[in-house]
TrEMBL record:
UniProt keywords, alphabetically: Membrane, Transmembrane, Transmembrane helix
Name of the protein described by the UniProt record: MFS transporter
Bilayer-spanning residue ranges: 48-69, 81-98, 104-123, 135-158, 170-188, 208-230, 250-272, 279-300, 306-326, 338-361, 367-390
Source organism: Microbacterium candidum
Topological category with respect to the lipid bilayer: Multi-pass membrane protein
Subcellular compartments: Cell membrane
Listed InterPro entries: MFS (IPR011701), MFS_Cyanate_Porter (IPR052524), MFS_dom (IPR020846), MFS_trans_sf (IPR036259)
Domain of life assignment: Bacteria
Length: 406
């Protein structure tokens, strides 16, 4: 059933700012630390294992906390949990900015990552709740804010630190988180009786394990995560070793890989929401692009490294595609929360596991062939999952077809 369309801002100004600032903080909380580590180490002694744990913790926190988020949402409600998440992110970022030891830095960072894990799950159902008539547009806007929150901190964090110090540079992102908390406090004051009714509904997460659509979305989301983690971790080294580029060119190629995600985040959710039959075309473009990038790096790496970077980046269009499908493939609020948790938690967990496997393969072989083969297999596995995702059906309809009333 289609929703009557009304102006985006009409009666929803707080929700617009709340969702966009939450999305920005979900990524800036992660991306703002790594550029600062060298400056922090000049003042605070940080063991190598702490640095390694900070680097590997995000997907693990996203997976573990994401699985628990539906239960928390049923207990507290969507708006109240959004307040809690943004409060924890704000407190964590502030504590991290004033860290005086490696333990304080690690503890505050883990707290931030845990809150981000819950926030990732909450964003799609928040869009479905406040913007059922504008799902494509709002998903595009918040996916773009996710991308902005990923690339903006590395660009400005170090210059700000040189102009002031690293404490102030980290604290800047806490100010954005605080700004993102205020709209949710305002919306919490407007809660209605229906919010309390939604909290009493039983969990539906267990039903998702028995349906093919959630698993297909998991595979699609995991493929995007794997390409992102592997590329951001090793693409400069791959380009240097295989394509013969220098360090500056390798960095520019990584930036090109990341830049592909920005127009994808802005355009794809709008296209999918408006033209539902475009899902298959977009999936094909992403998967074929990823395979093109892998094939190019395998057989002719020096021929067109910029084209291979773009190809790898195209597979990441699966990320905003899945985000909008989390809402389009559900009918109800509780299904949206459960599906978001199921897909993102398992997807991030699989992404972390495969990325770790890739690091072992590279260490064992000393080369990149096994890594590239793994990436090719990931893209190929996403293809049959895409066939399931393309069909215009919902998890509720699938359950009712095979098991009776939802």
């Amino acid at each position: 059933m289609s929703q009557p369309v009304r102006p985006l801002w009409h009666g929803r100004v707080l929700a617009v700012f709340g969702i966009l600032l939450m999305a920005f903080s979900m990524r800036s909380g992660v991306a703002s630390l790594s550029p600062m580590l060298k400056l922090i180490e000049a003042e605070v002694s940080i063991p190598a294992w702490v640095v390694g744990l900070i680097g590997t913790a995000p997907p693990l926190c996203f997976a573990l906390v994401g699985m628990a988020t539906p239960a928390l949402e049923r207990r507290f409600g969507l708006q109240k949990l959004a307040v809690v998440v943004m409060s924890v992110v704000t407190i964590g970022m502030t504590a991290r900015a004033f860290s005086s030891s490696a333990w304080m830095l690690l503890a505050s960072t883990i707290v931030i990552f845990a809150a981000v894990g819950a926030g990732n799950v909450l964003l799609p159902p928040l869009v479905k709740t406040y913007f059922p008539d504008r799902i494509g547009l709002m998903t595009a806007l918040y996916a773009t804010m996710l991308a902005t929150g990923s690339f903006l901190p590395p660009l400005v964090a170090v210059p700000v630190a040189y102009a002031t110090d690293w404490h102030d540079s980290l604290l800047v992102w806490g100010v954005f988180a605080l700004a993102g908390l205020l709209p949710w406090i305002g919306l919490l004051r407007r809660r209605t009786a229906t919010d309390d009714l939604e909290r009493t509904r039983a969990s539906v997460t267990g039903r998702l394990w028995r349906l093919s659509l959630p698993w297909a979305l998991v595979v699609t989301f995991a493929a995007s995560s794997i390409y992102a983690y592997v590329s951001f971790g090793w693409l400069p080294a791959i380009m240097t070793d295989l394509a013969g580029v220098d360090a500056v060119q390798a960095g520019l190629l990584l930036a090109l890989f990341g830049a592909v995600g920005l127009p994808c985040s802005l355009l794809i959710p709008v296209l999918v929401a408006r033209y539902r039959n475009s899902v298959g075309v977009l999936l094909a473009i992403g998967i074929l692009g990823g395979l093109m990038g892998v094939a190019g790096l395998t057989f002719a790496p020096a021929a067109a490294p910029w084209l291979w970077a773009i190809g790898l980046g195209l597979l990441n269009l699966l990320f905003p595609l899945v985000l909008v499908l989390l809402n389009l493939r559900t009918r109800t609020h509780e299904a949206s929360v459960a599906l978001s948790s199921f897909v993102q938690s398992l997807g991030y967990g699989i992404g972390a596991a495969v990325t770790f496997l890739v690091s072992l393969l590279h260490a064992a072989t000393g080369g990149w062939t096994a890594v590239l083969i793994t990436l090719a297999v990931v893209a190929l596995v996403a293809a049959p999952a895409g066939i399931v995702v393309v069909r215009p059906h919902t998890v509720e309809a699938d359950w009712e077809r095979h098991h009776g009333k939802w």
